[in-house]
Specification:
The protein is α+β, with helices and mostly antiparallel strands. It has 3 helices and 4 strands. The chain has helices spanning 49-63, 95-111, 132-147; strands at residues 17-26, 29-37, 73-78, 84-90. A 4-stranded antiparallel beta sheet has the order 1-2-4-3. Helix 1 packs across helix 2 and helix 1 (49-63) crosses helix 3. The radius of gyration is 15 Å and the shape is globular.
């Protein structure tokens, strides 16, 4: 079988950042997949499932309520390796164009207080697996990175 695109990225050199992972055509529309890399793969500890789950609930809620972007959000979810998240948006987009949305989303998570949206037995299949304090930690770390990001963290490292 052919190696899929995401397995061709050099994860040894990959640093936390906001990258265009791929662009796909669906009918007449382009879908841009973003790699929201929160930790340095194979170098730093990965996020635990509870904070990943909490970030997923809060980010999905934020993104699907953003007045400008909500109709362009197709998906937000974790990477299996727990080093980041994928965000799929309609449109032929760059990392720079998505940066304000992603930065504001992680600021929202960083500052969020209260009950996590959808964290109830009726709304979620694993509602007890949440950790808002650690979600705050990772969101603060990632928001800070995005507030000061340079081009080297907006484009995958060249081979």
């Amino acid at each position: 079988m052919e190696k899929i695109t995401s397995f061709t990225i050099d994860h040894i050199r990959l640093q936390p950042g906001l990258y265009v992972s791929r662009k796909d055509r669906v009918g007449s529309e382009t879908v841009t997949t973003f790699d929201l890399r929160v930790t340095s793969p194979n170098d730093e500890p990965v996020m635990n499932t509870a904070e990943v789950h909490t970030i997923e609930h809060l980010a999905a809620t934020y993104l699907r309520n953003d007045p400008t972007w909500k109709d362009r959000v197709l998906y937000f979810g974790p990477m299996g390796c727990r080093t980041g998240f994928y965000l799929l948006l309609t449109g032929d987009l760059t990392s720079r164009e998505a940066l304000p949305l992603v930065r504001d989303c992680f600021r929202f998570i960083r500052d969020y207080e209260g009950e996590v949206p959808g964290a109830s037995p009726r709304d979620c299949g694993n509602y007890l697996d949440m950790n808002l304090n650690m979600a705050h930690y990772w969101a603060k770390r990632y928001a800070t990175l995005l507030e000061n990001i340079d081009e080297s963290r907006l484009n995958y490292p060249e081979d």
